[in-house]
Amino acid sequence: MRTAYVAARVLPDADTLIRDGAVVVEGDRIAWVGAFRDAPAADERVDLGNAVLMPGLVNAHSHLDLTHLKGSVPFEGEFAKWAERVMHGRKKPGMADAARKGIREALARGTTTFGDIVDRRSFEEIVEVFRETGARGRLFVEAIGFRPEAANEIFEAVWDLVEMQALPGNVATGVSPHAPYSVSRALLERAVAVADGHGRPLAVHLAETLEELAFLRHGIGPLRELLKRAGADDPSFKPEGSAAAFLALIEMTRAPLLLVHGNYLRPRDVPAAAFVVYCPTAHAFFRHPEHPVIELLEEGVRVALGSDSAASGETVDLLSETQHLARERPDVSPKAIFRMATEWGARALSFDAGVLKAGCLADLAAFTPAAGHEILGRPDARCVLTVVDGRVLHRVDPAPPLGETAKLPTVA
Ligand SMILES: [Zn+2]
């Protein structure tokens, strides 16, 4: 079964625009991309009319198991206090329903893929939510534990989930040693060695707050106090001194490394194989100084985009992030935003997607109006189609012209 999706404009990647284009999908893969007049025969034609068709958007960092905390945890100036409230709120009921709703809203706005950090206790429910919604997910099982003596036991429990056999085809896994202030170095080293050995991506929150930098430098500050309050401190802990020194502990050679936030990272600290994941609305929520995204891009660092959790933002859909970014940072070009939202997100999550090319996974999104790469920054962008693995998960039919009910508009 071959389906041709036809649109006034097709954007296969951040550098290419095809007028009156088509994308032919066969099964879960893209079979052909080009001008409509050259398209091969297909069994079915979906005419999107005056729309722009592109790769599905990739939210490279979410915490869907915190979606039920939306709007309920204000930030009052101290990150450690905010994180402590989130930890306590995590156990509230309604988690899976909120996550399902968050994913469906994101699918209806063109997000096809999530790099989701999952607490061990929520893992099976979140897998089920992905199975039901059909969104693509790289689920990073979270490893947390600051006491070195618990490292092996924690890692074994994490790895059992990472290697779980009966996962749906739209779900893959990775590992997330949470952050420098919440994992022992023994747990970090074990996670890095095993994840890389098995080719599993690894995500770590890094250089997110000034509190974390104080912790890395001197082992002091609100985050150390939080560990003590939680009865989770390790009195023998010796800080690395800096985010760069911490990064020297993480060498990934086979699988991607995602450095989440990087609000205070310098480009020269980022290893060549790593991705930085910038979360624009969460960055604004915590009132950080300007993100170094331009410096990172100029030095050739690959940057992906994420939403972080609904506890530090409104939604988990990536279009809201790109619209926020375009509004707040006019110095970031539309093509850079496009690449971060698609190709680099997919590569960070190690999925064969993020560009429209024969052989890639058929993850697509279409928006009106028919614009160029700047569409992801337009406040009036409206998603009319979302496809994951070749399956249509969201579709808005264009309004039929007066007097006609069945005939869709043809390509201009
Ligand atoms: Zn996060």
Rg, nearest Å: 21 Å
Structural domains: how many:
2
Arithmetic mean of pLDDT:
94
User: If you consult CATH, what is the topology of the largest domain?
Assistant: TIM Barrel
Shape: globular
CATH architecture of the largest domain: Alpha-Beta Barrel
Work out the number of β strands.
16
Beta fraction: 25-35%
For the record, the CATH class of the largest domain is Alpha Beta
CATH superfamily of the largest domain, by name, is Metal-dependent hydrolases
Q: What share of the residues lie within helices? A: 25-40%
Q: Largest sheet at a glance?
A: 8 strands, mixed
The helix tally amounts to 13
Task: Summarize this entry quickly.
The protein has 412 residues and is an alpha/beta fold. It is 29% helix and 25% strand. It has two domains: 95 residues, Urease, subunit C, domain 1, CATH 2.30.40.10; 292 residues, TIM Barrel (Alpha-Beta Barrel).
